[in-house]
Design goal:
6-stranded antiparallel barrel
């Protein structure tokens, strides 16, 4: 199967907190914790029992392997129901600093070695 992603996905043992944003950029939901399944410079895959809608936006606080926190804005672009009642989501990064994106790139380099 041909890989269509622009950036390689990484399997990470990290924690993520999501906070919902509405159209005014105001948060409307306290943090939701999720299980990350993969991450790349362009997006993140995760599962959670919390129901999220595609097309919604979240501020994400991603604690990476170094215990640093990467802040990013994501849009939920994919949702798949799982047999256990949780959902697998795909989120596209729509806002992340170059410094934070570089942290993910650096992890990828070390992960490939």
């Amino acid at each position: 199967m041909e890989e269509k992603r622009k950036h390689k996905r990484l399997d990470l043992d990290v924690s993520v907190e999501l906070e919902r944003l509405n159209e005014d950029g105001v948060t409307t939901l306290r943090y939701v914790h999720v299980e990350v399944t993969d991450i790349s410079r362009s997006g993140i895959g995760f599962t959670t029992k919390k129901k999220l809608e595609t097309g919604t936006y979240y501020d994400a606080r991603i604690q990476i392997w170094t215990r640093e926190v990467v802040d990013a804005a994501i849009e939920i672009v994919r949702r798949e129901e799982l047999p256990d009642g949780s959902c697998k989501y795909g989120g596209e990064f729509i806002g992340m600093s170059d410094t934070d994106a570089l942290k993910i790139d650096i992890y990828q380099i070390f992960n490939d070695v």
